[in-house]
Specification:
The structure is a homodimer. Chain A is of the alpha/beta class. In chain A, the strands form 3 sheets. A 6-stranded mixed beta sheet of chain A has the order 4-3-5-10-6-9, with helices on both faces. In chain A, strands 1-2 form a two-stranded antiparallel ribbon. The longest helix of chain A has 28 residues. The interface between A and B is medium-sized, with 29 and 29 residues. The structure holds a DNA duplex.
Amino acid sequence: MLDVRRLRLLRELAYRGTIAAVAEALTFTPSAVSQQLAALEREAGVALLERTGRRVALTPAGVALVRHAEAVLERLEQAAAELAAARGDLSGTVRIGAFPTATRAILPSALAALAHSHQGLDPMVDEVDPAEVAPRLRAGELDVALVHEYDFVPAEPDLALDAVPLLDEPMYLATIRPVGGEGDAARLLACREEPWIASTPGTLCHAMTVRACQAAGFSPRVRHHIDDFATVLAMVAVGQGVALVPELGAADPPEDVTLTALSMRRRTRVAFRRGAGGHPAVVALIAALRVATSHVRTPG
Amino acid sequence: MLDVRRLRLLRELAYRGTIAAVAEALTFTPSAVSQQLAALEREAGVALLERTGRRVALTPAGVALVRHAEAVLERLEQAAAELAAARGDLSGTVRIGAFPTATRAILPSALAALAHSHQGLDPMVDEVDPAEVAPRLRAGELDVALVHEYDFVPAEPDLALDAVPLLDEPMYLATIRPVGGEGDAARLLACREEPWIASTPGTLCHAMTVRACQAAGFSPRVRHHIDDFATVLAMVAVGQGVALVPELGAADPPEDVTLTALSMRRRTRVAFRRGAGGHPAVVALIAALRVATSHVRTPG
DNA sequence: GAAACCGTTAAGGTGAACTGATGCTCGATG
DNA sequence: CATCGAGCATCAGTTCACCTTAACGGTTTC
């Protein structure tokens, strides 16, 4: 019988591309991963890995096997979720991953709601880099994660993960003076000469600002890199530049700031391992998130 | 992550009902099975087994978990089948289980066809007790098996196994003198005073004869217990009794024997582990069986 | 009431799997 | 072209999980 632990290594290899990365993700040494994959290959009787240069790639047979691995792992996840539901007590730790912006804007009230509805549940928040969310969910280091998806910055689908929509907010253009024009492009173009305030380079929010401006036909001159939208608005208020902020980041804006609604939107989703959607802790957390965001949520 | 090997033990327990039987089926000691199931239960956090007297029974949570185990094992079987197909060479051993009657009547020509079409394949036949077919298929000791199903003796469905129909033959009443009457019941009743020749008690074929007569309204007086239908016909020919034989057992009957076709039938199916239907060796063997039985097969 | 059966527990041995070290190949860099 | 680093494979050593043996307690049956 094929060893599921080894299949898990193979799946991880399909996502990460190198044995070293797999080893780091699952806290093994590369040696162990190499040995186990070699054993899997021997057992399979077919070449699953192809040594190309100093990397390894999956053969077609390897890719096919990964699909089966996904299915098996999903079903095991379902089984675990059902056991947790049968356990009933709903205690234990839920590990939540979130970007800094989501942490500040959504999680506090969600955790309050969760504490109220499920006292036994012990939430544990990890602020994680967006790129690390998917791997850490797969590896079981996180149970649920909040992920954003902007127009112009689509999230790539992950076969091992599932997600449900949570928020769908409009984006606002934050300026000092009212902005004229019709349509997103015209309004952004009206600010092409202004200095811009964006998030830290490398983040989704940063890419969102840059790409939106590029779609309007210009490259923004980014003066400040600030992640917290409240701070961003404060900077806008004192004339340091203009910025794009989502509705959740634009609550209670400074008086001097003008917010112009755009048609572009930010969608927030709750991601979890495929199969874990029935896990009572996941269900409870999603419910709490919905409660916490019910005043913002717009029908998507 | 739930351990699939342990889930396999749990599934086997669902079928067999005692830990000792599971241990024997999978060639472990009862101690090992007990320990592993205890570990699974600890891991699950829910009671999966209920100690009732000197036996154990599955709790509802245990039953639910078994369903997941079935699904996982089926998918692993599929993966293995796909790997075998990718391997392509189609070598190795196929273990075939069959009742004695099937062995004699079908397998020789099927194996000849297989040897012709797939030289690399190494068939290995095991004559097995009907009751042992399902467990040994599940345990991986057999890859395919021929199973019979008579009217009055339906086979019980097995969630872990799959099967395709192979044969659907009429049954014959073998006598010395022509039998009058219309309908199966009338014809059998005409022989109610005759001595009967049936198979060994405990076999399906034995049950078939007894139940058919009971359905006709009498209990047959069984004088001889003989499994081989050719021998049965020879006994009928010398006046030792009457018998029910399937078409495959009635090829080339002795001159003195009268065969009266009945409406009751015997269906033969090829069983294999769920998920293994795509395994090239299974595909090849089924094809060979169809070739070997094509002269008998009636549209079912 | 004895015997057979079944499941659990404790103790001990074995093998699988992981770590750490070493060597090799490939690719990038100056 | 030489050097360096990244990445994978292999080998030896160790640890730990799992299985077996042995012994015990409870239950059913004759």
